Amino acid sequence: MKVLVVGPGRAGCQLALAHRQAGDQVVLLGRRSGKWQGWARRNGIATATSLKRVPPDCVRLIIAVADADITAVATVLCGILPPDKQRMTIHLSGMTGLGALSCFAERGEQVAAVHPIYAFAEACSCDSARLGGAAVTVLASDNGRAAAKSLVRKWGAKPVELDADGDRRRYHLALTLASNHLAGAFGRAEEILGD
C-alpha cells in the first residue's frame, strides 16, 4: 500500500514509521529540509519537500499538520491528486471535523478525522511505532468507516467511534482538561515524593 504522510512532526513521524513497519511504501512530506529526513531514510521512509514528489497513486493520505492548516493542505492535495475512490484521507485533529476534507468527500473518496489519545514520542526519534492499544477516536464518512477503523488497528491502537453529531469542541476540551490535570497531579506527586 502507498501511504503519504504530510507533516514530519511527532504524530507524522510515528505514523509513517507504523506504516513502514507494516510493509507499506511511505512518503513523508515536509515543508522544509531537516533532521527528519535522515531519520526517515534510516527507517526506509522516502521523503519529499515538494508537492511535485507526492505519489499520485497513494491510497492512504494522512494529514498530520496544525489544525489551522488542515483545510488548506487538503485543498492543495485535492488539486494535485487524481480522484480515487479507494483512497482514504484522514487528519489527526480532535477539534476539526470532516468538513476540512470536503474536497475529497465531494469526489466520493473516503475521509475521516482520526484522533489518537496518545502522547507521541519526540518527532522523528522513535524506533517503534506501535501505539500500544491506545484509544483513537474515529469520525468517518459512511464509505470510510470500516477503512478508518482498520487503519487505527494497523497502528496497534483501539478505534473508538464518535457520533457525527457530537460537539468536537466539548470532546477536545474534556481531553485537554483530563490530560493537563493528570500531568499536574503527577508533577505534584513527584515533588512530594522527592522531599
Could you walk me through the main structural features you see in this protein, from its secondary elements to its overall organization?
It is a single chain. This protein has 195 residues and is an alpha/beta fold. 37% of the residues lie in helices and 19% in strands. It is built from six helices and eight strands. Strands 3-2-1-4-5-6-7-8 form an eight-stranded mixed β-sheet, sandwiched between helices. The radius of gyration is 17 Å and the shape is globular. The N and C termini lie far apart (53 Å). The relative contact order is 0.14. The mean pLDDT is 85.
Instruction: Give me the count of strands.
Output: 8
Helix content: 25-40%
Share in β-strands: 15-25%
Query: Which stretches are poorly predicted, pLDDT < 50 over at least 5 residues?
Result: none
Report the mean per-residue pLDDT as an integer: 85
Question: Which terms summarize this structure?
Answer:
single chain, alpha/beta, 19% strand
Summarize the structure in short.
This protein is of the alpha/beta class and 195 residues long.
Which secondary structure elements does this structure contain, and how are they paired or packed?
Layout: E1 2-6, H1 10-21, E2 25-29, H2 35-42, E3 46-48, E4 60-63, H3 70-80, E5 88-91, H4 102-105, E6 110-116, E7 135-140, H5 145-154, E8 158-161, H6 168-194
Parallel strand pairs: 1-2, 1-4, 2-3, 4-5, 5-6, 7-8
Antiparallel strand pairs: 6-7
